[in-house]
Amino acid sequence: MTDLVELEKRGVIAHLTLNSPGSLNALSDAMLDALKARFEELGADSSVKVVVLKGAGKVFCAGHDLKEMQRGREAEDKGRGYFTDLFTRCAEVMQMIPTLPQPVIAEVHGIATAAGCQLVASCDLAVAAEGTRFGVNGVNIGLFCSTPMVALTRAVPRKVAFEMLTTGEFISAERARAVGLVNRVVPHEELDAATNQLAETLAAKLGAAVKVGKRAFYEQIEMGLAEAYAHAGAVMTENMLYRDTAEGVQAFIEKRKPDWAE
């Protein structure tokens, strides 16, 4: 049986592939469960330093499975319980990404729409192929993308997010890069190589420093300025006391490669 979310390890880099091309990698109930299980697996795997998330087939991810959602209306409560559970579980999966110890890079092609765009916005970094389109298009069918809005408004400027949410229009990969939704845009044939190069750059850093830094990054964003500085200062103090950080600083001073224990 084919895994809905395939896992391939290339050394210290884990590649996760949404593997339901026939449904445009829709975030069905089963897909969300599979993605959650993979994130839990990788979160406990100290040998993995970077995670790459991609989609099989023609697109990255087309959002929720609308046919499955319509079937949820057949319940006695017209779907209220099902929809509540679906959006709660999806939110839990999205929130797992910033809490993973490893940086997560979205490798995006084709389209990333609605909850698929939410998935890109939730990742720490994103590399997109030229020609990729991004949208939160639910408003076009009468469903405002309220949960994708949470991740989107934390990734792009407010007016850009509101325009995307209310017009339902796509933006190009180049526009997505300009507004901060993705980091890099490359020719389609170079997408895998460019994403791997970025992943390898991150993987070459001291893993313990990246781990503590990622956690502090998301923690300080939610704080006021003074609290954020106090928290970040405490984190840096602890980081400076790591054996490998002391070695890294000394190696820089001595103009040599650090001898890290990791």
UniProtKB/TrEMBL annotation:
Keywords: Fatty acid metabolism, Lipid metabolism, Transit peptide. Gene3D superfamilies: 2-enoyl-CoA Hydratase, Chain A, domain 1, Lyase 2-enoyl-coa Hydratase, Chain A, domain 2. It holds the Pfam family ECH_1. It comes from the Bacteria. Belongs to the enoyl-CoA hydratase/isomerase family. This is Enoyl-CoA hydratase domain-containing protein 3, mitochondrial. One of its GO terms (molecular function) is hydro-lyase activity. GO terms for biological process: fatty acid metabolic process. It comes from Rhodobacter aestuarii. May play a role in fatty acid biosynthesis and insulin sensitivity.
